[in-house]
Write a structure and sequence with these properties.
globular, alpha/beta, 11 strands, seven-stranded parallel β-sheet, binds nicotinamide-adenine-dinucleotide, 396 residues, Rossmann fold, binds magnesium ion
């Protein structure tokens, strides 16, 4: 089998580290071509020592210089680059077979789009790409013959439960509904009155998954599930009314597909991202991922509840943005990134996140999504509006 060259966007994050763990188990299959991170020099250097990539990328020149010196001292041939241009180039280079898109937030949009335009195999964890620019991104995937494999556990589960030719249309395949499962996060049963005072530490303590801080907060507001509804819409060309969110606190069923004949096909497993990562890396083959086998006797029971759109206002906002179309989801995503960062910095109370998201979405009219420039302009404007609201309202 040919050794696959992998560009890993976001190698030092939660998904990045899990991806390297799967790759470490299969050195005969995968080789790190480029490891890209934001600012964690020491962590990236340790990864370079182990995986010896051709390239390593950091956000700015000063950090890249530090990494260059470390690599030189260690006798590593890794070439160090910096900035978004380097990410774009290394996602699209001819030597690259697959790109793991695992940067968090809007920062991953341009390099991931570049990978799609270069016709790569794109392993997509960075859901914000589809939320911001679903129309453009899917168009690029289809036009340039890229292979898109969802890494988000729910979408990976849905992908596994759908027939391989689902792109000819869900209805033609006999699909009635997509059942998108959600754990409900750490605040599913916390009394509403207490939500006003929850801290970033409480919000990041997810009951089932260990993840980066932004997605952890998104899980606590259920904005994450909202982003995933939009993600599922684009990935599977699913009308919003076909996507049913199902709260399932155990996170054992990662999602399911209901068919016209009454069959429901689900994918189950322990909540460990190495399963969908390994699936996407090896597709259509199956490889070992280091994941504990699922012990159904230990699981014992599985519970299901309808989502609470009052407690989790952000989930409703995602359906609203999807219905509005164009750049509405990009506006919502940008407001949410600003609000979550402010919450993590203790400049905004937890309930302020939904307030800022809703107010920003209401303040800005959505425009058409014709080009990347449209998306980036909507993103920038929404960030400004959201930041100003947080400043002016003197939250906290
Ligand atoms: P994380 O915060 O742990 O890691 C983010 C990575 O992106 C880091 O390597 C960081 O260095 C890099 N990064 C951030 N900004 C950057 C920039 N401007 N330029 C270059 N690199 C940058 O996040 P995570 O939890 O690994 O999540 C990554 C993505 O995967 C998110 O979009 C998230 O929604 C999605 N996802 C994560 C999980 C999970 O279990 N962690 C599950 C499903 C989907
Ligand atoms: Mg998910």
């Amino acid at each position: 089998m040919k050794l696959q060259n992998i560009t890993l966007l976001g190698s030092t994050g939660s998904i990045g580290v899990s991806t390297l763990d799967v790759m470490r188990r299969h050195p005969d299959r995968y080789r790190a071509f480029a490891l890209c991170a934001h600012s964690q020099v020491d962590k990236l250097f340790a990864q370079c020592l182990e995986f010896r990539p051709r390239f390593a990328v950091l956000r700015d020149a000063h950090l890249a210089q530090q990494l260059t010196e470390h690599c030189r001292a260690a006798g590593l041939a890794t070439e160090v680059r910096h900035g978004v241009e380097a990410l774009i180039e290394l996602a699209a280079r001819p030597e690259v077979d697959a790109v793991m898109a695992a940067i968090v937030g809007a920062a991953g949009l341009e390099p991931t789009l570049a990978a799609a335009r270069a016709g790569k195999r794109v392993l997509l964890a960075n859901k914000e790409v589809l939320v911001m620019a679903g129309e453009l991104f899917m168009h690029a995937v289809h036009t340039h013959g890229a292979t898109l494999l969802p890494v988000d556990s729910e979408h990976n589960a849905i992908f596994q439960a759908l027939p391989t030719d689902f792109s000819r249309g869900l209805e033609d395949c006999g699909v009635r509904r997509i059942l998108l499962t959600a754990s409900g996060g750490p605040f599913r049963t916390v009394p509403l009155a207490e939500l006003a005072n929850v801290t970033p530490e409480q919000a990041c303590a997810h009951p089932n998954w260990v993840m980066g801080r932004k997605i952890s907060v998104d899980s606590a507001t259920m904005m994450n599930k909202g982003l995933e509804v939009i993600e599922a819409h684009w990935l599977f060309a699913a009308p919003p009314a076909m996507i049913q969110v199902v709260v399932h606190p155990q996170s054992v069923i990662h999602s399911a597909v209901e068919y016209a004949d009454g069959s429901v096909l689900a994918q189950l497993g322990n909540p460990d991202m190495r399963t969908p990562i390994a699936y996407a890396l090896a597709y259509p083959e199956r490889i070992a991922a280091g994941v504990e086998p699922l012990d159904l006797f230990k699981v014992g029971r599985l519970d299901f509840h309808p989502p609470d759109f009052v407690r989790f206002r952000c989930l409703q906002l995602a359906y609203d943005a999807l219905a509005e179309g164009g750049t509405a989801a990009a506006i919502l995503n940008a407001a949410n990134e600003v609000a979550v960062a402010a919450f993590l910095d203790r400049e905004l109370p937890f309930l302020g996140i939904a307030e800022i998201n809703e107010a920003t979405l209401a303040a800005l009219p959505a425009g058409p999504q014709r080009s990347l420039a449209d998306v980036l302009a909507a993103d920038a404007e929404a960030r400004q509006v959201a930041s100003r609201m947080i400043r002016d309202r003197h939250f906290s």
